Fold these 3 entries.
Entry 1:
Amino acid sequence: MNVFGTIIDGERRKAMSRIEETNEILTYNLDKIKNLLEKQEVSIITLFNNVQNTLSREKPVRDLILPAAKAMVSAMIDEKAANSLNKIALSNDTVKKRTDGLSGNIKEQLLRRINKSDYFSLQLDGSTDITNKSVLLFYARYEYENVIS
């Protein structure tokens, strides 16, 4: 074998080694992604099971949302992070105060932006949910800082 044949053979071996390393890395990452997707699927199934079991309970946030959130955090991060969610105050009064505060803040921001806008459009849609409760959807488009929102 001549010098060029030896060089080409060495380069071929290096290329094959790189391909094998890349294949191992891709296989490892694919396994990690599959594992993550399986954990997410378990979290979604847990969420739906919790919804079915707790729709009629008195404390839906504590009985429904917290277990689902813990399952998601456990699947995505770890059990320690999931257990830290137990520190969140979830009484009905606390949740109502937080919800009212957030919705009030959003309403103020929206009205302020619409009032500053030269143009806006509104769209309303009424519907009824499965418990025969009326729901009104309000959709607004407006200009804010030279961008249509």
Note: The radius of gyration is 27 Å.
Entry 2:
Amino acid sequence: MGTSYFGLKIASWNANGVRSRTVELRDFIDKHHPDIILIQETHLGPGDTLHIPNFTTYRNDRPYTPNRSPRGGTAIIIKSSLSHTTHRHRHWARLRLLRLLSPRPMEIHY
């Protein structure tokens, strides 16, 4: 399990492709009850979905290349009950900021 930040459970996972591992991800959530999950190497492309009940998912997919399987990509999965906001970075279009509003302010850049 990842890090605790003022009572939050934060997990990080290099998925190396999350589409075929959603059952593994849901089992991990059921067992460890994380509040935030940071995923690298999602390998998601246009038309792919990543839905986990009671969580909100924010994705940053690598640009799509025709005739090639999706590679790279990141996702932040956060409990829907946690108060947060998200917005694009003003200088870097692909960078987004997620601001957790409680219990303590925290920003995650992805």
Note: The beta strands are 3-5, 8-14, 36-40, 55-60, 74-79, 84-88, 96-100, 106-109.
Entry 3:
Amino acid sequence: MDKDLSAGALGISWHDSTFIPLLNPSNVMDYFSERSNPFYDHTCNNEIIKMQRLSLDQLNNMIGVEYILLHTQEPILYVVRKQERNGPNHVVPLADYYIIAGVVYQAPDLASVINSRLLNTLSNLKSAFDEAQSFSKYHPSKGYWWEFKDQEASDKKESKEKKKKEVPSSMFQRQRVDLLLGELSKKFPPKFIPPTQPTEVKEEVPKPETVTVKQEIKQEKPDEKPANVIKPPPEKKPKLIR
């Protein structure tokens, strides 16, 4: 089996960033035949023609491995085929390569595609059986039964909905209770206490203390004689001579 058809070649890619802006159908084969391209076989007939500077039409007259441009979809997609020529009209395809936005990939062959799909299918089936086995329960008294997580969630949801739908009382009960309450309110009317208005607390401003000075006026009595008054000398009365 050719080394390009190995499984490792399907997981690699190659590109030359300097050549990508100039890529077109006329130079795409020169881009693919770069020496750094791991998908290109340097012993092919294309390399011989390139070294001898011959036309690509000479490939029809040669025998061996060659590369041809199979399909183009400008400016993004180019398909290159690797084939073995055994005669002018007899070729055997070996591999296909597609170039998308300048990046070269190897197209998987039919066996690789079938193998990959089968592996994915078997992996999904195994995970499905493992999950189904986890839902299977067994007890000696009950036997086998299935217990699904979604079923538990749906049961919980249904129970919540039932609780919401349940009415705490019937219409008859509500009307009967309203009637009894109306009769009781007629017999014993409620007493409404008027709301008390909040009293405003006024801050008392301290008044300045006024000092009253009492003036006492002493009135002297006429009988009373003032103290420390100098008495005049007694008057001398003339003596009468008989």
Note: The CA atoms of residues 59 and 66 lie 8 Å apart.
